[in-house]
Amino acid sequence: MLFALALAVGGALAPARPSAAATLTEVTGFGYNPSGLRMYEYVPANVAQRPALLVAVHYCTGSGPDMYAGTEYASLADRYGFIVVYPSVTRSSKCFDVSSPGALRRDGDSDPAGIVSMVRWEQQHRGVDPDRVYVTGISSGAMMTNVLLGDYPDVFQAGSAVAGVPFGCFATTDGSEWNSACANGTVIKTPQQWGDLVRAAYPGYAGPRPRMQIWHGTNDDVLRYPNFGEQIKQWTEVLGVGQTPSSTDQPQANWTRTRYGGTGTTAPVEAISIQGGGHNIMAAGMAARILDFFGLTGGGTTPTDPPEGACRVAVTVNAWNTGLTENITITNTGPSALDGWSLVFTLPAGQTITSGWNAVFSPATGQVTAANVSYNASLPPGASVDIGFQATHTGDTGKPTSFALNGASCTVV
Q1: Which domain holds residue 358?
Q2: What residue stretches are annotated with the CBM2 domain (predicted)?
Q3: Can you give the pLDDT of all 413 residues of the chain as single tens digits?
């Protein structure tokens, strides 16, 4: 299974060339390193005077140099002036330890302690700003991201986990690196239980907790999709923001983004579900969105989301045995009148539209576009329009989770 994990993720990374003005350098003697990790750093030629630090953690069978060569973080560091550290495993599996008791406690005898030694070395030798230290990882590295935020909440300001599992989910007591129950998505806990696992890593800590961004593909066959929801439960509970999203949108096709405790890029928890995505979901442009969440892009030319707040959608569903009706109220909350509009949303699986009113719906299943009819094409600022449809269903009577009006993501109420 570990080998499958490596193949799935390793194949996802497209080479990204850093600037020739700087190179990847190994650092030795960086401090307490109980598991023999290696440390690589990338310091851009235009490094800021008091730079931020990004720790980028590799996948199983990978290495720090692989993570450097296969992701965009070094080229983005050239643009924004932060430093990147790439920890590298030396054990035979090349997977990070996220399962042993020593990994799941602060200042233990495994990988997390060595990674934090790297951070402290950077603070001492490169003048890194201790208030701007971030971590991201892929697969095994995503699991480590969860672990580092639990073990060292006072070191990291935010993390981003791409195809990972919650803190403590991979815990084992027999020395094994692999937890099949967790990988298969069968370890289900209450938010309180997940939160208690995090708090037990650093007993007595009462300070601020880092923000968390979570990515997962719905078709992940290595670390299965239920781990996405379990991570949301864990970090919303730890950060005290509840389970109900503050906003839901679709920043690009097949992505559903929910934010908890806030609606902008500084929300305490942000979760991106990629419909149809497998385990290797890391793709071009994702690194820039991760840096947006961290606040490291500072107005650069990173991909921009559709403008938030341009529309508001309210939905009600009335369902019976095999049918339902759905009423949708669309409000133009933007500054300009719309002369013609279309609303895009995705129906839950098994729902099929049979008829509609006040809009033309096409197609009848999957991602649907509802277009205006002649008598309601104009939608001035502050105005609303009611549309709706009747549909059959095979059991799922839920609402669409996100809507976009003329390409702009809507707030769902």
Answers
A1: 311-412
A2: 304-413
A3: 333 333 333 333 433 443 445 899 999 999 999 999 999 999 999 999 999 999 999 999 999 999 999 999 999 999 999 999 999 999 999 999 999 999 999 999 999 999 999 999 999 999 999 999 999 999 999 999 999 999 999 999 999 999 999 999 999 988 899 999 999 999 999 999 999 999 999 999 999 999 999 999 999 999 999 999 999 999 999 999 989 999 999 888 889 999 999 988 899 999 999 999 999 999 878 999 999 999 998 643 333 343 445 788 888 888 899 999 999 999 888 778 888 999 999 999 999 999 999 999 999 999 899 999 999 999 888 888 999 999 999 998 888 988 888 878 888 87
* CB of 163 closer than 8 Å to CB of 9: yes
Q: Do 346 and 289 share a structural domain?
A: no
- Token pair recorded at residue 154: 């006072």
Rounded CA separation 17/74 (Å):
8
Residue 27 β-bridge partners = 39
Q: Tell whether 287 and 326 lie within a shared domain.
A: no
- CA dist list (Å): 69 to 10, 25, 60, 65, 82: 12, 13, 15, 6, 17
* Diameter over CA atoms, the chain: 73
SS3 13: coil
Is pTM, for the whole model, over 0.90? Answer: no
In angstroms, rounded to a whole number, what is the distance separating the alpha carbons of residues 154 and 349?
Answer: 42
Amino acid at 339: D
For tokens 């009600």, the residue is: 316
**C-alpha pair distances (Å), 381 with each of 99, 336, 371, 407:** 54, 6, 18, 16
> Running DSSP on this structure, what letter comes out for residue 375?
G
In a domain, 300, yes or no: no
**Could you list the active site residues?**
139
Spatial contact of 196 and 156, defined as CB atoms under 8 Å apart: no
Domain-terminating residue out of 235, 260, 294: 294
